[in-house]
Design goal:
Elements lengths: L18 H6 L11 H4 L23 E3 L2 E5 L2 E7 L24 H12 L6 E6 L7 H14 L4 E5 L2 H4 L6 H9 L2 E6 L9 H11 L5 E6 L8 H13 L2 E7 L14 H12 L9 E6 L4 E4 L5 E5 L2 E5 L5 E5 L4
Parallel strand pairs: 3-4, 4-5, 5-6, 6-7, 7-8, 8-9
Antiparallel strand pairs: 1-2, 2-3, 9-10, 11-12, 12-13
Bound molecules: pyridoxal-5'-phosphate and iron/sulfur cluster.
Length: 329
Amino acid sequence: MNDATRLPGRDSLPYGVSSYYRNLAVVEDPTVDPIAAQFVPRPEEDIRLDYETPDPLSDTLYEVAPRLVHHYHDRALILVNDRCAVYCRHCFRRHFTGNSTGRLTPDQLEAICVALAERPQIQEILLSGGDPLMSPDREIELLLQALTRVNPNYTFRMATRIPVVQPNRITPELAKILGRYGTMWMVTHVNHPREITPEFRRAIDLVVRQGVPVLNQAVLLRGVNDHADTLVELFRGLLQARVKPYYLFQGDLAAGTRHFRTSIDRGLDLMDEIRSRLSGMGMPTYAVDLPEGGGKIPLDRGTVLGKEEGNYLLKGPGGKIYRYPIEGV
Ligand SMILES: *Cc1c(COP(=O)(O)O)cnc(C)c1O
Ligand code: SF4
């Protein structure tokens, strides 16, 4: 189940799905079932467009030590483990995910700590992969111990899909470890309301009780969640599970993922539609990772249209224009 087996003729992402996640699919047909679409490979994955790349986040461009990516001034990313409980067919980090680099070694961790000590501007450490919670508890604890020796005040961001794909991996013991070091936040990856199950809620509950707030990064996926009703149900369901929607990502230009991408226009329309139906707390930021390592930017239509006769022209709901005085400094 957790073995990464590469399908013949596919040099990118292995196939693998937990029995829990597989059971969430009603029919195992990726063309009709939003869960199946996320784990059943389709022939379209073999289509590679010339503007697609295995590394759309440009991790390799910003790698300052093996498995340490320093792209943004105050944040750094550690690729903790290449394994996942489910290999999401839309994965953006396919250059690394399931590529057999395995778990972070003690030597790699030591080198990362040296590199971090030389970069005191880094305040926040993203732990990602792959899925860092595929590592044993003991290794996760040793990792957090080593990092808090570099800086006891680090903010950690545990990027994991485990609550969604293997919720029973979140045990009371693991939740305690997560709450024990620095300031821990968890960022999970729910894309469809059917992924919000009693097991998911229980996993989130365990983590939140240890003082770890949980955020969600969803990906806008054609045939999975590219409808306003689905997104509203998803974000409302997350709030009810005590998870704050953080990002909704436009599909990155990851190799073999064209069939998942919607147009940015469609994404902007969906954001307009759900904004009128959801509380501000339920609204994520629609964002994209720019090609060529340009970084993440929010996508919106812009509400400050310009200035006229001492006023800003602001765009309100439905495109109506409002005036707000230019004052202050
Ligand atoms: C996304 C990302 C971050 C975090 O970006 P935020 O906008 O703060 O969520 C940090 N480092 C890398 C390499 C990233 O890809
Ligand atoms: S869990 Fe994350 S890293 Fe793993 S396959 Fe899914 S999207 Fe990629």
